[in-house]
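Ticket closed. Logging final result for Ribonucleoside-triphosphate reductase class III catalytic subunit.
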Amino acid sequence: MNLDYVKKRDGKKVEFKSEKIVNAVGKAAAAVDQADPKIAAEITAEVLSYLKIFFKNGGTVEVEQIQDLVEKVLIEKGYAEIAKAYILYREQHSKLRDSKKLFADAVNIMDDYLDRSDWKVNENSNMSYSLQGLNNYIASEVTGQYWLQEIYPKETAELHSSGDLHIHDLGNLSVYCCGWDLEELLRSGFRGVPTKIESAPPKHLKTALGQIVNFMYTLQGEASGAMAFSNFDTYLAPFIAYDGLNYEEVKQAMQEFLFNMNVPTRVGFQSPFTNITMDLEVPSYLEDQAVIIGGQYQEKCYGEFQEEMDMLNRAFAELMMEGDAKGRMFSFPIPTYNITEDFEWENEKLDPVWEMTAKFGIPYFSNFINSDMDPEDARSMCCRLRLDNKELRKRGGGLFGANPLTGSIGVVTLNMPRIGYQAQDKEEFMQRVYYLMDQAKESLEVKRKVLETLTEQGLYPYAKFYLRDIKKRFNQYWKNHFNTIGLNGMNEALLNFMGKDISTPEGQQFSEEVMKKMRERLQQYQEETENLYNLEATPAESTAYRFARLDREKFGDRIIAANQERVVKEDADPYYTNSTQLPVGLTDDIFTALELQDELQSLYTGGCIEKGNKVLTNKGAIKIEEIVRDYENLKPIKALSYNAKEDRSEWDLITDAMSIDVSKNNKIRVIAEKGLDITTSDWHPFFVLEKISVKDKCPVCGEKVKGTKSFSTHTRYNPECRKKYKTMFKFKVVEKRADELNVGDYILQNSENLYPEKESLLDNDLMWLFGYFIGDGSINEYEDNRGGNHLKKYKLRFNDEHLSNLEKAKKIINNKFKTNINIIKNDKRSKKLFELATNMYSVNEFFLKYGFFSGEKCYEVNIPEQVKANITKNNVYSLLSGLIDSDGHINKKQGDIEYYTVSEELADDIVEILSTAGIMVSKEDKPSKRKNEVDGFRIRIPAQQAIKIKNKLTITNDADFLKGKLSLRKRRQLPVVRVKKTSKIEIEDNEFYDLTTEKNHNYLAGNRTMVFIHNTVLHGFLGEKIDSIEATKKLVKRIAENFKLPYYTLTPSFSICPVHGYLPGEHEYCPKCEAEAEAEENRRENLKAESEVE
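Final structure:
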């Protein structure tokens, strides 16, 4: 045996010293007045003898093993009191170690928050990165340790730390979510805590709304989750009538309410997470109830104020759609609408609600038609009726606990993928589920008892006051609140357990079996404890990431994550899918959204590109970083975009421009034909053309086939399919992320001429003349001193070796300006050149008017804005023809059109104009071969594109070199660039840029050539965004009548931010990104100010 070293708790090995055992036993004996060196020596000797037996074959003894032996020997030797003191000594030292570690880690805790390196920084999607957030984060760490070390059972705490389950909101010593009684607030006013300011019951609408705001903000400080009120419109409608308010006044009051509800003054720089239930029509149980105004019952009843309810609901819906000063939706309160059997679907007064739903998907709907919920559930909870503990019920109000005086004590989520990975068969799977459920139940029961005690002690003074009637009836404040157990990653659990996902019949059947057994277990808990339990797909904003991260550390790549391929190939951060989709008919799972997998899904994610790339706008091709910088001055500004639904290009209004830090993301460099060289974030999507497959079905009629031979047979016997297939476009537009692109993929470009069909001051002849002038013309300024007048004059010149070009220019000038100029030979040193010149005022003034200038121009020449403004769908080809006739040529062998210039500005102008006209074009560097010449640029139009436009060109030279037929290689005719190479690269500047457009189309961007790239914010729709109020109503009604989900929400649009992920609603830009951008701007301004002071 080797007792030279002992292994400490942190894994370090230190020298073994038996006197430490002597000292520890001696201190424990002294603590119970039995100090005796002989006892300490006796116990130490016995412990050493055990160690020699246990470690006779080698190994290193651990501290915990020695301490366990000391306890064992003390008890065996009859020193029970010393043993008890020693156990207490161990426990105290354990706490001391934890405390020391907590304070020692204080600096790391702050760094983790400031660097956003801890997943817990983002656990709550409603919490903003801020100083208040930092303070809350630090306090939450301490509170979390208190829960784990002082309150929860050791076994449960270890299961949380290891990732077998997740105890939510450890950072708060409080209840989770609460539904409160609005009637009580209107009857009593906002009060209840001695020494604190009290409000009398409200007499006016604005006063009532103000007290609701104060109530929500204050009570949010006594809970970690959502605050909710039911019957919001029913209870407030009478105030409108008693105040004699018109619609504008109601809307103004509601606007003040919404702004106040979204101010981030809650702890952690948050807005209160709030929900209100709107009845839309007065529920039967309130129809004949006397209204409350100023805390007093009035003669009239709530059923008499439907008109005012309509007014309030209209104002709320309109304001939610209008949003704040920047048009952003209000996050809170989230409205819930009750859908009942007698719901008035054709009520036009509810159109604003349907418009809000169609546009943004803001509301939740309570399904009282086809679910097992009873509208009286809310009333029974409100009236403090005891529920049948043999029946597993829903707590009401979805995840918000909206029913009065109910909610959730706390939430514990199970790590289902780990269960699936570890279980060998179905029996073991369920045993592991039951074990974790038992631990979750134990922790929730402990929490319930702690909260009761702390409420009694006055830690939650306002909750104590407003729950006083519950306390009187049940002798418990939180009796109506549920213990909530949730689950995460059922899809990955099935993949790890049986190799089937949740969409398969096997996966769906087993998930239903698991959920049914979990429900039965909860019923047992409810009968056993007489406390309410419910099963929910809990919102796992960061739990899915935490579980996956811990599982990967424990099991490596063997355990399957939702993004398994990227985890293995690219070392991406793993994650699990949120919760699970329950099979139809199993209604215990209250989701935050109705998940119809075939219809409601996010089809796109956003991306961004590095600086230097230009975006093609109606104000020209502008560098994307300049659009971001000058957006406020540039707007309104439109981008050339691609409408995927209608398969066409169009102008789309840019609604925001932003910069994004991509330092934590992979950067992908894409090199393709036509000079495309673009670096994007790894999530950045491109539109790619793929050939339509005929292996599985006929693309014309949709009939199933088995391979290409089967398709050939199908067309042989179906002449209509054969005829249509022969002429149809055989490619489809699909989307691929940058990190999914392969060599040979074809990225989509613009092929439509988006210049307007309008009257222009520049006809085809004049536009050709301008194009020709840019290459072979010049204006010289000279002084005419005849008569001593020193007059400044100009002389227009064209120099060319091609007489045909000059003849055309002469004819246009003589015709347009009534001159009579002729071509002359140039000086003898340039025998090949001919010259066409005029100093006529009208001619020179015309060119100067359109932005051309006198003097040297070779390095600064461009296409003036005045010319660009007059380009039309027709004359753009004449401008191109003039350019070609000057410094351009057509390759005799290939048929490509090339144009050479030493002006990069001109090269970029040509790329901009031709891209807008739908002409495939690219810009290439053309290094000079001579020392005394500067490098230039070659603009190239491929032969296939030249053939397509040759009949629209008006060139005078090289026209015969244009090819007559398109290539038989169909892909060469497509408006695409072929990917040559993709690679992951590191770059110094991690500030990338992107735009959002009004219709969320892909916009045209690039540098040497342009391709369609993605918006930062793109939306997943129910097939497509719902534009019809009627369609929205039908969809909501159909779901209520055909699905048994008790709560659901439509999300016709939601947003994906590449930095912050899922954002409910149609955000034009990510509010979190904006906050970070503002913080970064402030930081830069401070640094600038400091440098100026220095």
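The longest strand covers residues 648-661. No further action required.
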